[in-house]
Amino acid sequence: MSFVVDTSIPFTEHFVRHGFAVLPGLVDPAFCAEALDEIRRLIEDRRPLDTWTIDKPGIVNVPFFEDVGRDEGNSSPVLGGIFDQPQLRAAIDKLHGGPDRWDGVRNYYYLIKPFDPAGEPKLNLDGFHVDFGTLPPPTLYRGFLFMVSLVDTEPFSGNFTCRPGSHRIAQKMFIEDPELVGNDPQVKELICDRLPVYEFVAEAGDVLLWHHLLYHEGNPSHSLNRRPRVALLGEAFRENWLTEINPSDPDLSPWERSLAQNSFHKPMRDEGRFARSKRAERIAVYEAKGISVDEKWKHYSHRTG
Ligand SMILES: [Fe+2]
After folding, report:
1. Edge to edge, what strands does the sheet with 198-199 contain?
2. In what order do the strands lie in the sheet with 20-23?
3. Among 229, 239, 232, which residue's Cα sits nearest to residue 209?
4. Torsions phi, psi of 260, nearest 5?
């Protein structure tokens, strides 16, 4: 069963109900062209996109983290400019409930999913997951993600695909059993099996915003005109982790409302502890090498509430 985006409700409401929202044409095509050019420069491939394959330039997923505790040494002012796109920033502010909520840290990736000659023009329905590996996913978290398509894609271009509504069911299960691993096959099946499937077929500049507990996947790319998926994926996080949610609070942002659909909730464990300990480890390695680290990063995301 395939899902059709409901354009009769505000995008914020779509995010609350379905765990994602699609905003067509949100990013300036001129930025998309410039970003694509920058990616071509980085991968040293100027060939037409329909000649790209999984062998060359290959499936590419490169992180750019301003967060020193996750830094991979990549930097691109051009691609980082995605956070300066005014309509995208306005959408982030709206979902977060104000311009002062996003922490201003530019963490993002560029993604390339080129044509796979051995693939088939169909969706893979086996790879749905949440991005927490073998850890129990946080029930509240600290923000959401966004994907900007830099090119026009078509069905089966290797597009982002998701299970609308999975965020709500998943959160209920993870609240009831905080030790559940979201990517355990049995857990995934219970959450996803009866839900429809949505494939993000996009034009350059279209944006999809999604909830951290929305089950999703990429797909092999094998579309009619061999159009690859080329996209930027960004994080719109708050510095502080949400530590409780009260559905009767009248001042919840739309993002908070997306987390308030399963009654009052206050996690027993510190859900940000793992991320903070990884950051502290990396910072210690830098300092051991004599590289000075700004104080900001030593306290980053330590606040709660
Ligand atoms: Fe993922």
Report:
1. 198-199, 161-162, 216-217
2. 20-23, 207-210, 143-149, 229-237, 107-113, 60-65
3. 232
4. -115, 30
CA of 214 to the centre of ligand 1 (A): 9
Q: How far is the CA of 132 from the centre of ligand 1 (A)?
A: 9
**Distance from the CA of 215 to the center of ligand 1, in angstroms?**
8
Domain ranges across the chain: 11-269
CATH code for 11-269? Answer: 2.60.120.620
Centre of ligand 1 to C-alpha 194, Å, is 20
Q: What is the tens place of the pLDDT at every residue in 3-54? A: 999 999 999 999 999 999 999 999 999 999 999 999 999 999 999 999 999 9
Q: What CA–CA distance (Å, rounded) separates 49 from 91?
A: 29
Contact of 236 with 89, CB cutoff 8 Å: no
Whether the model pTM is above 0.90: yes
Joined together, the tokens standing for residue 19 give: 């765990």
57 preceded by a cis bond (ω within 30 of 0): yes
Cα–Cα dist 115/118, whole Å: 9
3-state secondary structure of 50: helix
Residues 116-158: tens digit of each pLDDT: 999 999 998 889 999 999 999 999 999 999 999 999 999 999 9
Nearest to 145 by CA among 21, 3, 7, 273: 21
How far apart CA 154 and CA 26 sit, in angstroms, is 18
Sort residue 83 into left (φ over 0), alpha (ψ -120 to 50) or beta.
alpha
Q: How far is the CA of 303 from the centre of ligand 1 (A)?
A: 26
- Amino acid symbol at 212: H
Q: How far apart are the CA of 250 and the centre of ligand 1, in A? A: 32
CA of 262 to the centre of ligand 1 (A): 24
Alpha helices per DSSP H over the chain: 11-18, 29-43, 77-80, 86-96, 166-176, 185-192, 254-257, 273-288, 295-299
